[in-house]
Amino acid sequence: MFEVKNSNKLDSQVYRDSLIIREDVFVKEQGVPIEIEIEGEEGPKYYCGYVDGNFVTCARVKIEDGGVWHIQRVATLKDSRGKGYSSSLLRSIEEDARKAKVPYLTLGAQDTAQDFYKKLGYEVVGEGFLDAEMPHHRMDKKLV
């Protein structure tokens, strides 16, 4: 059974589980410096998806000017990819955003992940940019 939990506390299990996923995916697999993956600031909301109590996918959400939710650090453990967990996690975030009357969601997608986000209704906006030396594009999804 898939379950989503969230927290904005750095001492929460959700945050700790998210860091383990992010270190596995971004640091070990993609070579991102660990300093980018550890924030130490309260404020963002951390989401983590669990299957039968085991963490498999995560994301963090920062609230920007105008109440826009900026989704960041979406990651899924290698053995759990292709099973729809990240899609379910993002739908859960979207559901929370709609309840909060958020006008749109935005994220910086690795170019290799654009098709995944397009299937969820996101559209590419603007020019590309580098994040952790990897090509990205901003993608938005209007909710209102």
UniProtKB/TrEMBL annotation:
GO molecular function: acyltransferase activity, transferring groups other than amino-acyl groups
Chain ranges of the N-acetyltransferase domain: 5-144
Pfam families to which the protein is assigned, alphabetical: Acetyltransf_10
Keywords: Acyltransferase, Transferase
Source organism, top-level taxon: Bacteria
PANTHER family: ACETYLTRANSFERASE, ACETYLTRANSFERASE YPEA
Protein name in UniProt: N-acetyltransferase
Upper lineage: Bacteria, Bacillati, Bacillota, Bacilli, Lactobacillales
